[in-house]
Each structure stands twice: as structure tokens, then as C-alpha cells.
Amino acid sequence: MRSPSGNVLSQLPKKLASLLGCESARLELKWMKESLRPSDHPSTLQKMVERRLQGEPLQYILGTTPFGPLSLLCRPPTLIPRPETEDWTLRLANTTSPKSSRPLSVLDLCTGSGCIPLLLCHLWPPGSTRAFGVDISKQAIKLATDNAARCNIPAHSSADILCNVFVPVLGDLRDTIFLKKLGAPFDVVTANPPYIPEQEYDQLSASVKDYEDLRALLGDLPESPIQNGLSFYHLIARFLAEKGILRNGATVALEVGDRQAEAVENILHCSAGLRHTEIWTDPWGKQRVVLARV
Ligand SMILES: C[S@@+](CC[C@H](N)C(=O)[O-])C[C@H]1O[C@@H](n2cnc3c(N)ncnc32)[C@H](O)[C@@H]1O
To answer: What range does the record give for the signal peptide (predicted)?
Structure first.
């Protein structure tokens, strides 16, 4: 006779396949099985599939996601790092060659899981990077701190070992005095801010809206006079325009949403006075990043 869990398990792949298609279901089931530890209860896999059938994102179920060569922890409600963010962060890492003789000061606004500064710290030479990641969410800062430990990126440099440093900081990017005190002038400022306009938020899938933080997605606060998803870019540009924030030769990289690149480029020209800008397209053909050089 088959065990009850064996019986249920034999039906679950079919249900997953009807939800995701055969190939995706096969792959997801394989990753779930690979994530099991010997100490897990026999029903763990069944529970994982049931969560997936309820619409929970796979990365939250597995607890990790790849980001370049890193494997980062994922926990709701902190935003799951996206492949497009991974793509431009790798590209940014390749365009700059920092040296330990003159370490770069990096500020990542809206850091979430810490994915952007952690990948830069991992790829750039030891001792060349001192990064700060700011987020308004306590859960995000806890996750970024756990991810830094997982990636062996310390929050403090030590006298005897040359290393890159990442400091996750709880804070609001609207508090520009606090941001400035972190480590200005900055050589690199990155941000993947919330950028979804309210009318597009309503159309997002339940697997995004039910699990990922509203604050990570919605580009405008309810009281904001503009509701086009661009409020954070205006705030960031005003901060960048302040005296002493950007060092000469600094790079700014801002991820943008669908059809926002030209508007954000314009905001950087007009409000931050950054004239030298370019737009990077992602591997899926979308304009994804506005890059500015000082
Ligand atoms: C789109 S997520 C990006 C997370 C991460 N950088 C990534 O690329 O996966 C935006 C993040 O901005 C944070 N956030 C929202 N409002 C903020 C504010 N006023 N100040 C600082 N962070 C904020 C959210 O908590 C969220 O983690």
C-alpha cells in the first residue's frame, strides 16, 4: 500500500504542471527537492508544493535566490531580487575598477535584501569598497544584514585583513541629513526604488501583491501630488543635487520601470543637474537603468 504522502505527492506534480506548464513544474519540483535537508519532516516537500499552488513565489518557499554568483536569502515581505537588477548590477561592476589604494564610497538607496551592494562588494577587489544600504523596512535591514553574513561581507573593516564592507542602515531616504552623514561624498549611488504607478499596482499578479511589501513596489505615497510612479526619482534627484553628496567622477545608477527611462533621465538633468546620462537596456529589450556620470 502507498503511504498517504506518497499518494498526495504523485498528484502534486500534475497540479503544479497545470498551473505552471510541464517544464517549469519539473524544474521547480527539482529545486524544491534539492533544497530539502536530511532533518526535514517527510511532509516538507508536500507543504512546499501546496504553498506554491497557493501562489507563493518559489524564492520565498526555497528561502534563497541566485544573484550573480551569490545565493541570497529571501524572506517575505522583502522584495525578491529580480534578474533585470542582477543584469545591470553585473554590468555596473564591470564598468568600474576600484582599487584598495582609494576605496570607493557606495550608497545604495532602497537596499531591500542588499543584493546590489553585496554583489558589488563580492565582485570588486578586497579593500576597494565601503558600501551603505539604506531601507525604511526593518525586515529588509534584518535580511540585508543576514545576507551580508551569508556572503562573508563584514560591516567593519579589520586592520589585518583587506576586505570590502557593507553596512545596512535603517532609515528614510527623505531624511537627507542622515544620508549625507553616512559617507558623503559618494563615488557610486545606486537605487532600485519603488516605481509602480498605482493603476499598474492593481493589475499585478496576486503572487506579487499578496507576498511582497507594498512599500517596495508603489512608486508614490498616497499624499503625493504626482501619481505616475516617479516620486522616488524626484526625491533622489533633489538629494543628489545637494552640495557634497557626489564626488567628482561619481556614477549614479537608477533602475526604472516600464517606459520611465526618459522621464527619469529628464529628472536627473533638471533636478540633479546631471548632464551626462545614458540609458541601459536589459536583456529582455526594456530600458531598465538611467546611468549618470558626474
Ligand atoms: C523595489 S525594492 C528594491 C529592493 C532591492 N534593492 C532590490 O533591487 O531587490 C524598494 C525598497 O525600497 C524601500 N523603501 C520604500 N520607501 C523607502 C524610503 N522612504 N526610504 C528608504 N527605503 C524605502 C522598500 O522597503 C524596499 O525594500
So the answer is: none
138/40 same-domain check: no
What is the whole-number distance in angstroms between the Cα of residue 137 and the centre of ligand 1? 8
Q: What is the predicted pLDDT for the residue at 225?
A: 79
Q: Are 55 and 206 in contact (CB under 8 A)?
A: yes
- Same structural domain for residues 232 and 155? yes
* Residue 60 included in any domain: no
Q: Are residues 106 and 135 in the same domain?
A: yes
Which residue's alpha carbon is at the smallest distance from atom 20 of ligand 1?
172
Find out whether the beta carbon of 116 lies less than 6 Å from any atom of ligand 1.
Answer: yes
Cα dihedral 139, 145, 150, 151 in deg (nearest 10): 120
Q: In this predicted structure, what is the pLDDT of residue 14? A: 82
pLDDT computed for residue 85 by the predictor: 98
Output the CA 18–ligand 1 centroid distance in Å. 34
Instruction: Measure the CA angle with vertex 91, ends 88 and 94; round to 5°.
Output: 155
Range of the domain at 197: 65-293
Q: Is 113 in the pocket of ligand 1 (CB under 6 A)?
A: yes
In this structure, which residue's CA is closest to atom 18 in ligand 1?
A: 172
The answer to whether the CB of 194 falls within 8 A of the CB of 232 is: yes
> pLDDT averaged over consecutive 10-residue blocks of the chain (294 residues)?
49 81 88 92 90 94 97 97 98 92 95 98 95 98 97 85 94 93 94 94 91 93 83 96 95 96 96 96 97 96
Give the chain's domain count.
2
Show the beta-strand stretches assigned E in the chain.
Answer: 64-67, 70-73, 104-109, 129-135, 165-170, 186-191, 246-255, 276-281, 287-293
User: Given ligand 1 and candidates 135, 189, 192, 201, which is best to mutate, with the most ligand atoms within 8 Å of its CB?
Assistant: 135
**Dist. CA 140–CA 76, nearest whole Å:** 9
Residue 222 has a pLDDT of 77
Contact by Cβ (8 Å): 25, 48: no
